[in-house]
Write a structure and sequence with these properties.
It contains ten helices and 36 strands. With about 650 residues, the protein is an alpha+beta fold. The protein binds zinc ion.
Length: about 650
C-alpha cells in the first residue's frame, strides 16, 4: 500500500549565480554619502509645467568638465501657494542669476536647494523662472551617477550620458527633482561639432556655430519626469531603422559597433511585440534611440535609453534582456510613472517581468522558468526589506527580482487571460498614461481584469518579508487509490497568502496537472485517475515563491468499507502510523450517533497488514440499525478518518 507514502516536493535550492550580471540593473555602488531621502509627498506648493534647458558643454574630458546652462522653469502655484519657491540644485553648480518673469530676483543657494521668495504667489497663477548656472556636475546620488562626463576607456573621445534615477537630475539642472511632478521639456545643447547629441524627445534641428560648435534643439511635448530627462553625447557611429513608420535610432562607440548591432537588432521586433502586449508605444511622434555611454548598467531615459558599454557588450541573450527591459520601461515607468519611489517595483518588477515574457516568447516556457529561478535567491528575499516600501530604493535588486516574482504569481493566480488583459488595460488606461501610477491604481487595474479584489493578494508580498510555507497531504478516497483528496496547507503563522499552487499527480502513465487556489489556509481538491496514484507533487516546476513545509502524515487511514452495501456486518480496514488508542463512532445521515465502540490500544501497522474493525450493523441498544447510509468514523488521540457505508435490509 502507498497510503503512508506522502510525496513532498522539496523545493530545490536554485543554483547559485555568483557573477551573474542582472540585466537592466543599475550597477556601480555609491561612493559618496547620500543626503537623505526626498520625502514621498513633496508638492512644495508648485506644479512644474515645463522645463526649457539650455546646456553648453563648454569643456569635456580630458579637460576639466564645465557646463554652462540656463533653465527656464514654468510653474503653476497650487493651493495654498508657497511663500518660497524651492528647487533642487547641487551646490557644485553655481547660480549667477534668477529671473522671475523678466526681472532679476534675489535667491539663496544653500546645500542642494535654490530658493526664491515669492510673496505674491497665488493659487492657480503661472510664473516663469529663468536660472543661469555653471559648474562641473558631480557624481551624485545612491548610484553615484547623475550627468557623467568622461572619456571613452579613460583615454578616447569624450562621452556624456546620464543616470538620474532616483533623484540626481538636480546634479546637472535645477528642477523639482521628484517623480511625482512631470513636465514637458525642451533641451538645447551645444557641443563640439564632432559630437552627436541625442536627447529626450524630437530633434527640431541643429545650428552650426562659429568655432567648430553645433547646437542641437530637442523638444518633448509628452510630460517627462525629471529622472527620465536624457542627454547622451559622443563621437557616435549612428544608424537608424524604420519600424513600421516609427524611427529607431542607434548610437554606439566605433569600437563597439559590432556588439551594438547585435544588442540593438531585435528592437523593432520587441517594439511590435510590446505593442501587442501593452498598447501603442507611448511616445509616438518622437523616436526611440539607444545610445552607448561609459557606465555599467543601462537607464531608460525617455525616448533615449542610455546603454552602458558593459551592458551593450554582454553575451547576446543577456544583452537582449537589457534591450527589452529598457524599452518596456517606456510603458511601465515612463508613461506610467510612480508617484513616489515607494512604488519603484511598479517600474522595475514589471520591466524585469517583461524580460521573462520575452524569454517565453522567443525561447519557450522552459526558458521562462529557468530565468525565473535565476531570480529566486536562496533567501527568498527574506531580510531584503519591504517590496512596498524599499529602503534604499536604489540600488536594490529586490525591487527587480521579487517584483517580477510577484507579477509572475499574479499571472499564476488569475490565469493568462485575465493577466494579459490586465497588462494591456493597465498600460493603456487613460487615467494613468503619461501621468502617475501607484499601488492602488495598479491593484485596481488588476482587480478589474480579474473580476475580484486583488488587494489581499498583493498585501502580504508588499507589506511583509514573509513567504508562504506550503505543505502537501493526500489520501485515498477509494480503496484502490483512483480517487484521492489532495490538500495544500499554509503553515506560516502570518500573514495568509491568497495563492494559486500547481499540483501534479502521477498515476501509472497518467499525469494530472492541477491548480489549487488557496482562499484559506487549507485548500483541497478531489482527483480521479485511471490508475492507482503513485505520487503527488507540490509546485513541481517551482512556480511559487515558497518554503516547502513538511505536513504531518495522517495518523490513521481507512480503506473503503467491505462489503458496501452490506446486509449486516461491515468491515473497515485501517492503518495506524503509530501505536494509539482507537475508538469508532457511527452516525446516521441526520448526524445522530447510532453506535460507539472503544477499540482499545492498538499497535502501529505501518504499511503492513491493517487492523480491521467490524460494525455489525447494530445500534447502541444492540438492535439492528435501519436501512440507510451511515458515516463510520475512526478516532485516534489526534486524528480521525471517515468512511461512508450503506446498510440494506
Ligand atoms: Zn529598470
Amino acid at each position: 500500500m502507498r497510503i503512508f507514502l506522502l510525496c513532498l516536493l522539496v523545493v530545490a535550492a536554485v543554483a547559485a549565480h555568483a557573477g551573474w550580471v542582472a540585466p537592466g540593473a543599475k550597477t556601480e555602488p555609491p561612493e559618496v554619502s547620500w543626503p537623505g531621502r526626498i520625502p514621498a509627498a513633496d508638492s512644495r506648493g508648485i506644479d512644474v509645467l515645463r522645463y526649457e534647458l539650455t546646456i553648453d558643454l563648454v569643456a569635456l574630458p580630458p579637460q576639466t568638465p564645465w557646463i554652462e546652462g540656463t533653465a527656464v522653469v514654468r510653474v503653476r502655484y497650487l493651493d495654498p501657494a508657497p511663500d518660497v519657491l524651492r528647487l533642487d540644485l547641487v551646490d557644485d553648480l553655481t547660480v549667477s542669476e534668477v529671473r522671475r518673469g523678466l526681472s532679476s530676483t534675489p535667491f539663496i543657494q544653500t546645500g542642494d536647494s535654490l530658493t526664491v521668495n515669492v510673496p505674491l504667489a497665488s493659487p492657480g497663477n503661472r510664473e516663469t523662472f529663468t536660472i543661469t548656472y555653471a559648474g562641473s556636475p558631480p557624481r551624485h546620488g545612491p548610484l553615484y551617477a547623475g550627468l557623467l562626463l568622461r572619456q571613452r576607456d579613460n583615454a578616447g573621445p569624450p562621452t556624456v550620458g546620464n543616470v538620474s534615477q532616483p533623484y540626481s537630475s538636480h546634479g546637472w539642472f535645477p528642477c523639482k527633482d521628484h517623480p511625482g511632478d512631470k513636465a514637458t521639456l525642451a533641451m538645447t545643447v551645444t557641443a563640439a561639432d564632432t559630437l552627436t547629441v541625442s536627447a529626450t524627445g524630437r530633434l527640431l534641428g541643429t545650428d552650426d556655430l562659429p568655432g567648430g560648435r553645433r547646437t542641437w534643439r530637442w523638444d518633448s511635448e509628452f510630460p517627462v519626469a525629471t529622472y527620465l530627462v536624457g542627454l547622451l553625447v559622443s563621437e557616435y557611429e549612428t544608424w537608424s531603422e524604420d519600424c513600421v513608420g516609427f524611427p529607431l535610432v542607434f548610437h554606439a562607440f566605433s569600437e563597439h559597433v559590432d556588439a551594438a548591432r547585435v544588442t540593438y537588432a531585435p528592437t523593432c521586433d520587441m517594439m511590435k511585440w510590446l505593442e501587442d502586449l501593452a498598447g501603442p508605444f507611448p511616445f509616438i511622434g518622437e523616436k526611440y534611440a539607444q545610445a552607448e555611454f561609459a557606465w555599467g548598467g543601462a537607464m531608460e531615459n525617455q525616448t533615449v535609453t542610455a546603454f552602458g558599454q558593459a551592458s551593450l557588450t554582454l553575451p547576446e541573450r543577456s544583452a537582449h534582456l537589457v534591450t527589452v527591459h529598457e524599452l518596456a520601461h517606456h510603458w511601465f515607468g515612463n508613461s506610467l510613472t510612480p508617484r513616489d519611489w515607494r512604488d519603484i517595483w511598479l517600474n522595475e518588477g514589471f520591466a524585469r517581468y517583461v524580460e521573462l515574457l520575452w524569454r517565453e516568447h522567443t525561447e519557450g516556457a522552459e526558458a521562462y522558468r529557468d530565468y525565473l529561478h535565476l531570480l529566486n535567491r536562496d533567501d527568498l528575499f527574506v531580510g531584503d526589506g519591504l517590496l512596498g516600501d524599499p529602503d534604499p530604493v536604489l540600488p536594490n535588486s529586490m525591487v527587480y527580482d521579487k517584483g517580477a516574482w510577484v507579477v509572475h504569481m499574479l499571472r499564476l493566480h488569475v490565469g493568462d487571460a485575465a493577466f494579459f488583459r490586465f497588462l494591456h488595460d493597465y498600460a493603456t488606461d487613460h487615467d494613468l498614461t503619461y501621468q502617475h501610477t501607484d499601488r492602488q491604481a495598479m491593484t485596481d487595474a488588476a482587480s478589474i481584469a480579474a473580476g475580484e479584489d486583488l488587494a489581499p493578494f498583493f498585501a502580504p508580498w508588499l507589506d511583509t518579508e514573509a513567504v508562504p510555507e506550503l505543505g502537501l497531504r493526500w489520501r485515498p478516497l477509494a480503496a484502490d487509490d483512483r480517487r484521492i483528496l489532495v490538500e495544500v496547507v499554509q503553515h506560516q503563522e502570518s500573514p495568509f497568502f491568497p495563492l494559486t499552487v500547481p499540483v501534479r499527480v502521477h498515476a501509472g502513465l497518467e499525469v494530472v496537472d492541477l491548480k489549487l487556489r488557496m482562499d484559506d489556509r487549507i485548500a483541497g481538491i478531489e482527483v480521479a485517475t485511471t490508475a492507482p496514484v503513485d505520487s503527488v507533487l507540490l509546485d513541481p516546476d517551482d512556480l511559487v515563491l515558497n518554503r516547502t513545509a513538511l505536513t504531518p502524515a495522517p495518523r490513521i487511514l481507512a480503506a473503503q468499507p467491505r462489503p458496501n452495501p452490506s446486509v449486516g456486518a461491515t468491515h473497515l480496514s485501517f492503518w495506524l502510523a503509530g501505536a494509539d488508542r482507537v475508538s469508532a463512532d457511527v452516525y446516521d445521515m441526520g448526524g445522530r450517533l447510532v453506535y460507539r465502540a472503544d477499540l482499545g490500544a492498538l499497535p502501529a501497522t505501518g504499511e503492513g497488514a491493517p487492523h480491521v474493525w467490524t460494525w455489525q450493523g447494530n445500534g447502541r441498544d444492540d438492535r439492528r440499525a435501519p436501512a440507510g447510509v451511515y458515516w463510520l468514523v475512526l478516532y485516534t488521540s489526534d486524528d480521525r478518518t471517515v468512511r461512508k457505508a450503506t446498510l440494506v435490509r
